[in-house]
Amino acid sequence: MITPLLSICIATYNRASFIGETLDSIIPQLDDDVELLIVDGASTDNTEDVVRNYTLKDTRIQYVRLPAKGGVDHDYDKSIELAHGEFCWLFTDDDLFKPGAVAAVKAAIKKDYDLVVVNAEVRDRKLSAILEHRRIIMQDNKEYAPNSMEYLFVDALNYLSFIGAVVIRRSIWLSRERKVYFGTEFVHVGVIFQRPFLKPTLIIAEPYICIRYGNAMWKPRSFDIWMYKWPKLVWSFEYISSQSKQVIIRKEPWKRMKTLLVFRGMGVYDAQNFNDHFSALPVPRLWKMGAWLITRLPVNILTCFLSMYYRFIKQKALMLYDLKPNG
Length: 327
Known about the structure:
Layout: E1 6-12, H1 19-26, E2 34-40, H2 47-55, E3 61-65, H3 72-82, E4 87-91, E5 96-97, H4 101-109, E6 115-123, E7 130-132, E8 142-144, H5 149-156, E9 166-169, H6 170-175, H7 187-193, E10 201-212, H8 222-234, H9 242-248, H10 257-265, H11 271-277, H12 285-294, H13 299-312, H14 315-319
Parallel strand pairs: 1-2, 1-4, 2-3, 6-10
Antiparallel strand pairs: 4-9, 5-10, 6-7, 6-9, 8-10
Helix pairs in contact: 10-12, 10-13
């Protein structure tokens, strides 16, 4: 058996309605030196039936069903442990490869990078309309030397909240701390930025991924993720300057009323969030009153206002909160 150059690693959970379309976009691009590995975190729908139908037709597809749901971080880590490739592409279970994706990534990793970041276009949930032609705005590929990780951090970290962009050398992943990042929802970010690489990183400017926007499974947990888990992770990298971290996100973003308004308009900030996070918080009474009043605002009206604001002014900023590590 040929040792694969590339393993496409998908961690999935309850995606029977979408994963077939994802696999259909990948399988025609598989070569003899590319394997496809799907790790199922004990789905309760018929995801297993859908995937097994594909494995019967193509021996390059491996399916592993875990005995219990381990969470997105655990399941992606498990997929890399089980993979055989020199590099692993951590892909999502509801998005698509565009034509030429595998060929472009193979050409890049043969140039001896430790990490390759693949750009994406963003479409609506039905994939019928393009919302953003390039998630990272660049026309040409860009290389980052090992001593330029902070520039990579600033240029790409918000996009890298989307795990499907990541192609990483398997030996690098396995040599780094991973379990400490289980539960963050962004284990890949922790692995990438815990310390500099020894070899360069490449961002592929051409969008070879099609992201299905608005299909995140984590929406009920969005407030906790973006207001607490994400900033805590971003601010944990000691060798990255505070100025660069501030470019990505404030250390305590929930303190801004504007941010709470956005999350209220998205329908993910409510009285329960207030009680869980702010009711006993030692903050000024006026701030606490404002935070509570926002939970009383009609979501529908606020959503309409925010939709117009972000559609015409800051669409990319709002989109961040719905690009996901795993669907």
